[in-house]
Fold this protein.
Amino acid sequence: MKTTQVEPVKIFIACASADSDLKDELKAFLIPSVLTGSIKLWDDFDVQAGQIANDISMAELRASDIILLLISHYALASQNFYQNTLKVALGMRRRHEALVVPILLRHCDYKQLLEGLKVLPHSEEPIVSMPDRDKALNDIVKEIKDLAQFIPAKKQFKHDYSKASEYMHQAKWQDAHLLLHKLEAQYQHGYWPERIKLNEDIHLCKDHIDREWAKIEMPQVPPDAPVELHTQVIREEPVVTSFQSVPATIPSARTQATAPPKKARIRSRFDGWTRGQLFYIYVGVVISAFCFVYWTFSSTPIDQKRIEAARKVDQFIVWQNFLTDFPNSEYKLEAAKALQRHAYRRDTFMPTLKMFKQDGKDIQRLLNEAIKKYPSDTQYFNLQIKNVTK
């Protein structure tokens, strides 16, 4: 059985030549991951003899998954670092082509140039100013490894979305709809495109599918058409016009030909049906009507049962499964709001709470903002803050 080999995550390190010593220290902590094949490192000093340095560097930069910007006053003063590396890296980040991680090596005024990116270490204290430089670099490498583990799934998600977009351009709405639903279930914070774009594409595919079904017309039979067109059956028995018994002897074709002409009568679409057939049809209609009334007024819809269970459990995966199974339910707005509430817990509240604990910042302000946004989760927020601040 063949096993698919995962490609290593490509990491590009950009720094000034004056910071090469600190760059080598950082690379030393990343070498074990290079040896295991999980990541692949490259920097400007890896250009071999005979190669054009700038062209090779730009090609490696554009092919990278993670870009480490080693920030210092030497780097910001370098024209090559600012014009080539920094601007290209930020452009790739805006196009969701790579993750950009600034690492603060020395004191400098960098905030206006990084477009609001958070730097490592989280304390924003330069590496050279830390008493234990090895510990600081080791913590930074742990953050980089966590990001690297996230890259393969993110790239596969983006590849599948491109495939779904190709289906949409080819008007293969059914295939695109199924693939987009799968991506919506796999979505995580940080993936591209965002969930709003996925939902817009899902609704677009559904609209086109509904339009294609609306174009299919059922054949219409005129009311005055012969009986054979209504029943689609050619009967060889005589036409029964009443519920009287059929005569024992059926006149032959020759007798019918010589018989005197009968008076014209209005034909009905039920002509040719026997008394037994009409009776069974009548009984079937009555039973169907009874079942419809019974299930309408006595049973609970499936989506109502599922929404009640989701309210009791109140977990992210339960609400997500409900939206996947019942995308057109009347409770879909409630489920979508519940998903947003859980996503805020997981992706915003808890990471910010842990960061505030490490930095010693005001946690009460975070609590007030969270309660103001989701008052129903007040007990949850208080419990999490109590557990973190023990």
Remarks:
- Residues 303 and 329 are 7 Å apart (CA to CA).
- Residues 133-169 form the longest helix (37 residues).
- The chain has a mean pLDDT of 78.
- The two ends are 50 Å apart (CA to CA).
